[in-house]
Amino acid sequence: MYSLLSGLYDYLTQKPSYKILICGLDNSGKTTLLEQVKKMHGQKYMDFKKITSTIGLNICKLEKSNGEFTLWDVGGQVVLRKLWEKYFNEAHGLIFVIDGADEMRLPEVKETLHHVFTTQPSHDLESVNTTTAFDQLPVLFLLNKQDSKAFKGVDFVTERTNLGHLLTSAQRRNSESMVMAVSAIDTQGIEGALAWIMAAVSESSK
Ligand SMILES: Nc1nc2c(ncn2[C@@H]2O[C@H](COP(=O)(O)OP(=O)(O)OP(=O)(O)O)[C@@H](O)[C@H]2O)c(=O)[nH]1
Ligand SMILES: [Mg+2]
Q1: Where does GTP bind (predicted)?
Q2: Residue nearest to atom 12 of ligand 1 (CA)
Q3: Strand 139-144 relative to strand 177-181: parallel, antiparallel, unpaired?
Q4: In-domain check, residue 163
Q5: How far, in Å, from the CA of 57 to the mean position of ligand 1?
Q6: DSSP-derived 3-state class of residue 1
Q7: Rounded-to-integer distance, Cα 27 and Cα 8, Å
Q8: Is the CB of 152 within 6 Å of ligand 1?
Q9: pTM score
Q10: How far is CA 157 from CA 64, 79, 106, in A?
Q11: pLDDT in tens, 102-143
């Protein structure tokens, strides 16, 4: 009887769990951001100076009143980008990190965004449905390195990467998108960014 009641209690009090994928070009600051989030939440984190380019997957779990959120940080090197697809189907939301201080790589950001948001996942090529894996997910575009003197600003980056067009595209009108500036190093904007993606993810899963 006790185990039945405790099972029922667990079921009723169970929080929904959500997965949020963090992707973007190599060197944009995804892992630094993830480790900073851990630090801000009193979790064990890696010394930022010791972070090297990601090959596998880094994870951070956050318990919030509206659910349990798992952040997945994947590698952004060219050869690893095709692996992002593996996580698309399971993700409830996406954070796409852009180095806002690296003007030289903005054309590559533009090309990658175009690929991610307008190309079908390879296993879906036969499908007649022309939406991409991300069209239905809330997406937060984070312009990182706001602390840097070379930071270009939201308007400049949005224009150079064609982000504005992407945000208003027909496919994305059904799901939430946002652009925010942050600094993974000095924490500027991170709290607001997390609050936005968590609220968007839990709302869109209702
Ligand atoms: N100034 C500044 N530098 C940053 C910031 N965030 C990350 N960096 C630096 O950017 C470099 C790359 O950071 P990573 O976190 O390894 O980048 P990543 O996106 O995880 O790279 P991959 O794992 O290769 O995809 C490091 O030298 C970081 O210290 C930031 O907010 N401001
Ligand atoms: Mg990394």
Answers
A1: 24-31, 76, 144-147
A2: 27
A3: parallel
A4: yes
A5: 15
A6: coil
A7: 46
A8: no
A9: 0.91
A10: 32, 24, 7
A11: 999 999 999 999 888 876 555 444 444 445 656 678 999 999
User: To the nearest whole number, what is the mean pLDDT of the chain?
Assistant: 89
Is 7 within a domain?
Answer: no
Centre of ligand 1 from the C-alpha of residue 22, in Å: 13
70, HSE (Cβ side, Cα atoms, 13 Å): 14
Q: Is residue 2 part of a domain?
A: no
In-domain check, residue 190: yes
Which residues have C-beta within 8 Å of that of residue 157, sequence separation ≥ 6? Answer: 98, 100, 106, 109, 143, 163
Q: Is 26 in the pocket of ligand 1 (CB under 6 A)?
A: yes
Q: How far is CA 27 from CA 6, 117, 177, in A?
A: 47, 21, 23
Confidence of residue 95 (pLDDT cuts 50, 70, 90): very high
User: In angstroms, rounded to a whole number, what is the distance separating the alpha carbons of residues 44 and 35?
Assistant: 8
Residue among 36, 39, 51 to mutate when testing ligand 1 (max atoms within 8 A of CB): 51
Residue with tokens 């064990």: 44
Of 35, 74, 28, 73, the C-alpha closest to 51 is 35
Q: Is 45 exposed, middle or buried (0-12, 13-18, 19+ CB in 10 A)?
A: middle
Provide the domain limits for residue 49: 12-121+132-204
CATH of the domain at 110: 3.40.50.300
Give the list of residues 6+ apart from residue 3 with CB closer than 8 angstroms, or none: none
Question: How many domains, in total, are found in the chain?
Answer: 1
43 is in an annotated binding site: no
